[in-house]
Amino acid sequence: MLLLIAGVASWWLVLARESRRVAQEESDRQTALLLREIDAHNATDAQLQRAKEAAEAANLAKSRFLTGMSHELRAPLNGILGYAQVLQRDPAMPLGRREAVEVILRSGRHLLGLIDGLLDISRIEAGKLRLERTECVFPAFLDQIVRLMRPQAEDKGLRFECVVQSRLPDIVHVDEKRLRQVLINLLSNAVKYTDSGRVRLRVRYARELMQFDVEDTGPGIPAEDLERIFLPFERSWAGERQADTGTGLGLTVCRMLTHVMGGELQVQSTVGEGSHFGLKLFLPEVRMLSGDPHVPGVVLGYRGAPRRLLVVDDQVAHRRLLRDMLEPLGFHVDEALDGEACLAAVAAQVPDLVLLDVTMPGLDGWAVRAALYARQPQLPVIMVSATVATLDAAAVAGTTRFVAKPVMLPELLLRIGQCLNVEWITEPAGELAPLQDTPATLDIVLERDDADALLELGAMGYVKGVLVKLDEIQARLPRAAPLTAHLRTLAAGFRLKEYQQVLKRHVRHAQAPE
Ligand code: ADP
Predict the structure, then answer these.
(1) CA 471 – ligand 1 centroid, Å
(2) Class at the top of the CATH hierarchy for domain 130-282
């Protein structure tokens, strides 16, 4: 029995060792195969990497070449275009040569368009185009585009319509320059290729998505060309039969820019009926201007002759507020307490700009604006309104500048700057360290009502009001003098953010009921 058991055991051992050996061999073989595969992959990887680097280097070289070339071409072009304009205005120029100068100008402009288009494309391809997003006052932006395009369409005998189909945001975050470039390109194409009928710009906004539709009653684009026209230098038949052809880069740049901005550009068209370009963009709404990109630093005044403003508001406090905000900057401010008084004041002396309240007894702001427009079409008017519904109406009207109440000084100055084209004198904001609490101010607390009033005046940018309120608090609470002095320094220096921060540290919090 023992012999038998020993025999079976040793046979079992032999078999086990044999199978382990076979398994080991198989595993070694597979490992060797795997290692060979990994080596092959590594080699392919390295090759791919080298190819990618070579392609990137080539792309970079191309971009650098294009950028360099564009700059080089632009300099002589400046001379050509500049002197062509000089010659165009020269009375000594023989009549027969004027047309030749026109041709030089037109060709020069075409070349400039090409250079700009190529530069844009190479910048986008090289990933070098940086979007400069700022807070854009959207109705004013739209207004500007309509003002630019309407005369071009009407000169060609086309009707130009701007239809706003929903509430529009007051301020959006966007690269204004690039959005303007895309819209103007689409609208210019619509005007250029349409011989009769109308060009329409429709705008609607929902859930932070802005949809622009540019529709025309032009020749249309055949279905087989709908994708091709977005490629550089590709034209559809409307482009080919046009005597004054464009650069052929417009739509290419438009689509690329739209993609960079994270949007979509689509086209639909029916030959003989017209085309419809749809631009969809994500444009987040900004509730309040945080700072003003167009009016840097603190505005101290403006250059040039004094400007005369007329403030129309039925509430004396509001008129006074605007006067106090604007007179220190050098504006001459007149007041009118209602629509009739405004019209009478304008009849007596035309101001440079009217700041017009919307809700007033008797003639409301819109009626006054219409009457002003009928008499003085050139007179700029800024609507000042407190209700969102009015802002919508303003947006629908399409051509109105407005400022929301409570009036924020930077926004107001931005609009005034747009209307009057004034050059501001500013004090650079500078990097000032926030004022720290001193032992004298550390444990001074203000009553809730006082603090709220100061916070509100500060939020409105109404520094004069802040100073008056601080004087009043100091007279009542002499103990608070170090704090009021501290706040006065901040407010007088227009350091309103720090002013708010300091103020919030010194408010008496309501005691919890026992
Ligand atoms: P171009 O400088 O030639 O206008 P674009 O890239 O802007 O270049 O447009 C490419 C082509 O698309 C045009 O040549 C034209 O054939 C066609 N196209 C663009 N917009 C319209 C339009 N609104 N109606 C008809 N054709 C259009």
Answers:
(1) 65
(2) alpha beta
What residue ranges do the domains of the chain occupy? Answer: 130-282, 298-427, 439-511
Buried b (16+ CB within 10 A) or exposed e, 19-52: eeeeeeeeeeeeeeeeeeeeeeeeeeeeeeeeee
- Reported as a pLDDT band with limits 50, 70 and 90, residue 297 is low
Is the per-residue pLDDT at 164 higher than 90?
no
Instruction: Report the distance separating Cα 258 and Cα 76, nearest Å.
Output: 31
- For the entire predicted model, the pTM comes to 0.52
Q: How far apart are CA 283 and CA 133, in angstroms?
A: 10
Which tokens sit at 275? Answer: 């085309």
* Residue 199, pLDDT score: 94
60 CA distance to ligand 1 centroid (A)? Answer: 29
Pairwise CA distance, residues 74 & 69, whole Å: 8
Topology classification of domain 298-427: Rossmann fold (3.40.50)
For 488, residues 6+ apart whose C-beta sits below 8 A from its C-beta are: 467, 470
Distance 239 CA to ligand 1 centre (A): 6
Identify which of 115, 181, 184, 189 to mutate to test ligand 1's pocket (most ligand atoms within 8 A of the CB): 189
Token output for 447: 């009553």
CB neighbourhood size of 434 (10 A): 11
Contact (CB, 8 A) for 132 and 177: yes
Beta bridge partners of 335: 311
Q: H/E/C letters for each residue in 218-229?
A: CCCCCHHHCCHH
Q: What pLDDT is stored for residue 52 in this prediction?
A: 92
Residue 436: pLDDT band with limits 50, 70, 90 = low
